[in-house]
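User: Just a sanity check before I run the rest of the batch. Below are the structure tokens for the first item. I only need the designed sequence back.
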């Protein structure tokens, strides 16, 4: 591996890292992309040449220093190189969520004053054209995939290849301008602007400098001993800070290869083919994979299911200890080795995790049972805690100190403290520069000394020094009896069950807690087919009496578990209902990173919340929904409200 050098030695921008890699690792793979079933490879030399030609072409098109350029599309090498090329040319890349609707894109494009858009396909071009009358500063659009765009007006619409060709053809004339602009880039130059998910309001533009990205990439790569030999699969939204730090920051710092799947539909197959050594996924991905495993085992024969259950029980008992290098008896090791041969190895291969050396999950808390399942297989899955404003990393779990109930110790170079109210604060070289065009929010979030308020409540364990996050500070509240209300704690326990896709718990200021639940259509649908239960829609399945009774059993089990927690035992769910629709980002109920917008859900379904508390046995409701083509409609349903079993609290048991 080529040992990177620090910013003081000249590598003071992401384009400088790209040029270094093109010199020192010229023929090593920088990117792979699967297209038409075949993996295509870009070497570092080819990647650098493409980025330079694109930068020259953009300058020829009129890109000025400081111009904002929106990047819209799925994970593709050409779009990653677009972000670097924009910075080379003196502009600021602004990746957008590809599944955002036109109105959401319009807000971001207006807010940053984007003058250029680089879009992957006709779908993204159409979204921008739909709102172009609101985008007074937009000058040109560049598209990567020409399919469907031949008859469009190309006055201000250009193909990606044409821009590359123009950059190459006019290289001699334009290169001095590029060299001048690139030469001015330093640690304090803007590297990228990423928009927050907007959980509580309009998204904010987070300005991150080269210092933020490079120093964070350096420290986090050293922490996990990442090398140029790693392989990662880039499948998470390019607009999300995690993808940027993994697929550009760390990739360019260490020189490892970024692999882009052919499509979302082929992601599982592509994951198995690549066999990444470094892998990140939010809890939802791990939950979905586990659900699919459990569904397959329910359909398996009796002997195969017995074999799976037997060896998985042993894996849960000794797997994490073996992974962490702790002492385990010889017979247990032999049985685990047999399980590796029969169950764990084939299962990891099916999931695509055979080669994973370091795996991370973050974004939301992962259920302990889910987390322990993967570690019991021998997968070095760890948790980190981060934010867009921190360039991701605030805390990480060191090898050998991994637990499901903490998020680790402060990352290298990061200071963390707990405020008087229990809120977590940090400062680090990764701390963002500002919220674009929002000095008030910048001042509210980051104080003059650089300390950033995370909005999360947590505490450090006195014996281990590990940080535990309780919940979002705004969500942590008191119940009417003074007990603590932390909804995420309960929601994560509910989502461990394959049948439950999403849960939203209410109870702040109330006597009791209640919940909305979304079923997992694939898991519950599979169960229904095996039990000869006919259904024609999500709504019909979600309201079936046997499904409701199954969900009630899960809620009861969660209540029994919550009752054991002395601090949070008051958060047991007394009543619940299964929603007639899946919570959806297009309907504003989830963010684009699939975080629950609790306040919006509470307001939108206020009638359902009231019914849960007023003793109603059922309620009729109508809800506006957004279809895939953007049309609006309404669905109606009569929802049954169920009571759950509530258990004596831990404090009450102790007092008896």
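Assistant: Here's the designed sequence for the first item:
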């Amino acid at each position: 591996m080529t040992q990177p050098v620090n910013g003081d030695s000249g590598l003071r921008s992401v384009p400088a890292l790209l040029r270094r890699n093109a010199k020192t690792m010229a023929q090593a793979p920088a990117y792979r992309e699967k297209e038409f079933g075949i993996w295509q490879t870009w070497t570092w030399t080819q990647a650098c040449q493409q980025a330079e030609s694109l930068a020259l072409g953009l300058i020829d098109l009129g890109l000025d220093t400081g111009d904002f350029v929106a990047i819209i599309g799925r994970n593709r090498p050409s779009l990653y190189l677009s972000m670097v090329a924009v910075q080379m040319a003196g502009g600021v890349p602004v990746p957008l969520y590809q599944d955002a609707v036109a109105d959401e894109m319009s807000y971001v494009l207006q807010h940053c004053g984007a003058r250029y858009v680089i879009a992957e396909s006709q779908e993204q071009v159409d979204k921008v054209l739909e709102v172009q009358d609101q985008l007074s500063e937009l000058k040109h659009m560049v598209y990567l995939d020409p399919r469907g765009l031949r008859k469009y007006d190309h006055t201000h619409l250009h193909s990606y290849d044409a821009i590359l060709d123009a950059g190459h053809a006019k290289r001699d004339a334009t290169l001095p301008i590029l060299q001048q602009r690139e030469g001015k880039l330093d640690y304090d130059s803007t590297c990228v602007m990423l928009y927050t998910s907007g959980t509580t309001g309009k998204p904010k533009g987070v300005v991150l400098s080269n210092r933020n990205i490079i120093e964070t990439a350096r420290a986090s790569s050293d922490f996990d001993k990442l090398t140029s030999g790693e392989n990662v699969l880039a499948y998470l939204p390019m607009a999300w800070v995690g993808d940027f730090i993994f697929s550009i920051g760390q990739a360019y710092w260490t020189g490892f290869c970024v692999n882009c799947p052919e499509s979302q539909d082929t992601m599982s197959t592509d994951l198995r083919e690549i066999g990444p050594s470094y892998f990140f996924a939010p809890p939802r991905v791990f939950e979905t994979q586990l659900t699919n495993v459990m569904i397959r085992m329910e359909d398996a024969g009796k002997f195969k299911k017995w074999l799976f259950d037997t060896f998985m029980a042993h894996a849960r008992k000794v797997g994490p200890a073996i992974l962490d290098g702790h002492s385990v008896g010889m017979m247990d090791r032999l049985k685990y080795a047999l399980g590796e041969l029969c169950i764990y190895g084939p299962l990891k291969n099916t999931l695509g995790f055979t080669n994973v050396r370091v795996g991370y999950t973050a974004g939301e808390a992962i259920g302990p049972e889910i987390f322990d399942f993967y570690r019991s297989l021998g997968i070095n899955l760890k948790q980190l805690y981060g934010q867009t404003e921190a360039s991701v990393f605030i805390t990480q779990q060191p090898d050998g100190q991994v637990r499901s109930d903490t998020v680790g110790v402060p990352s290298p170079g990061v200071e963390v403290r707990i405020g008087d109210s229990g809120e977590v604060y940090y400062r680090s070289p990764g701390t963002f520069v500002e919220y674009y065009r929002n000095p008030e929010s910048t001042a509210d979030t980051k104080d003059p000394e650089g300390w950033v308020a995370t909005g999360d409540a947590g505490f450090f364990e006195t014996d281990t020094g590990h940080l535990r996050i309780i919940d979002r500070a705004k969500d942590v509240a008191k119940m009417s009896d003074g007990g603590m209300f932390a909804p995420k704690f309960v929601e994560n326990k509910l989502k461990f069950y394959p049948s439950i896709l999403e849960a939203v718990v209410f109870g702040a200021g109330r006597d009791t807690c209640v919940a909305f639940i979304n079923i997992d259509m694939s898991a519950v649908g599979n169960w229904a087919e095996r039990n000869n239960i006919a259904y024609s829609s999500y709504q019909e399945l979600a309201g079936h009496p046997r499904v409701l009774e199954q969900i009630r059993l899960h809620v009861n089990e969660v209540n029994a578990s919550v009752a054991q927690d002395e601090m949070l035992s008051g958060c047991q769910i007394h009543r619940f209902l299964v929603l007639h629709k899946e919570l959806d980002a297009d309907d504003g109920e989830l963010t684009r990173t699939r975080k629950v917008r609790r306040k919006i859900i509470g307001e939108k379904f206020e009638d359902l919340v009231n019914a849960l508390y007023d003793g109603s046995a059922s309620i009729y409701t109508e809800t506006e929904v957004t279809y895939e083509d953007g049309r609006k409609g309404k669905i109606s349903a009569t929802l049954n409200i169920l009571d759950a079993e509530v258990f004596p609290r831990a404090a009450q048991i102790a007092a008896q």
